[in-house]
Design goal:
Layout (H helix, E strand, L loop, with lengths): L4 E13 L3 E8 L3 E7 L18 E8 L4 E10 L10 H15 L7 H16 L4 H15 L13 H12 L12 H18 L5 H9 L1
Length: 215
């Protein structure tokens, strides 16, 4: 019998397969982005039904196959169920998952990005900052986590914005969303991050298109 393994991470994407199964894309701290099949997860009494949804953070017990994994058990740490009732927060949440799926690969540990997703989703739930600022902090930190951003004073003339750029790129992950800005500084910070992010990522994200239509 094959040995199982336990990986810690988050469900990025789900897709129905056949009559009762699901195909999951997981981002794990140990092995990066992987594909796993949850057999019977769409059956009403399946023990995997709650764990096989986007935004779920868990310890996943899996069997490793040649091309994919099979999910057999999940010890859920956080569902983020309340996010589904937050508008437009839930759409930003899906955007964060989509960005993470784009930037990560199998075989490359992703603890930093898993943690970034957790604190960003929690910020959306708390609503202590605007979704614009939450998104901009997420995007800049994603660039920094992937080695695509190095702080430069030339990125802005405004001292408050320069400080924010440095903070978002380098602050301890648990303090990342303690950042607060004046309205004017937030506008410049967000436009600066948008420019930096577009320079590094030319992907068209479906969730971002939905957000723009809502506006």
């Amino acid at each position: 019998m094959r040995d199982s393994l336990t990986l810690n991470g988050v469900v990025l994407q789900t897709q129905p397969v056949g009559e009762y199964d699901k195909r999951l894309v997981l981002l794990t701290t140990e092995r990066g982005r992987i594909t796993a099949f949850a057999r019977g997860a769409r059956r009403p009494k399946s023990p995997l039904i709650a764990a096989s949804n986007p935004f779920v953070f868990a310890s996943f017990t899996l069997y490793e196959g040649r091309d994919a994994y099979t999910l057999v058990q999940a010890d859920v740490k956080e569902y983020f169920a309340e996010l589904s009732g937050k508008y437009p927060g839930v759409f930003y949440g899906f955007y964060f998952l989509e960005v993470a799926a784009w930037y990560t690969r199998e075989g490359l540990e992703a603890a930093g990005i898993v943690n970034l997703l957790f604190v960003a989703l929690r910020a959306l739930l708390r609503e202590r900052q605007s979704v614009r600022l939450i998104r901009s902090i997420f995007e800049l930190r994603m660039l920094a986590e992937n080695g695509e951003y190095a702080y430069s004073e030339g990125d802005s003339r405004d001292p408050e914005v320069r400080k924010a750029l440095y903070y978002a790129a380098a602050a301890p992950i648990g303090r990342l969303y303690a950042l607060q800005l004046s309205e004017e500084a937030e506008r410049e910070f967000s436009s600066t991050v948008e420019r930096l992010f577009r320079r590094s990522c030319d992907k068209s994200f479906k969730s971002l298109a939905v957000i723009k239509e809502m506006k």
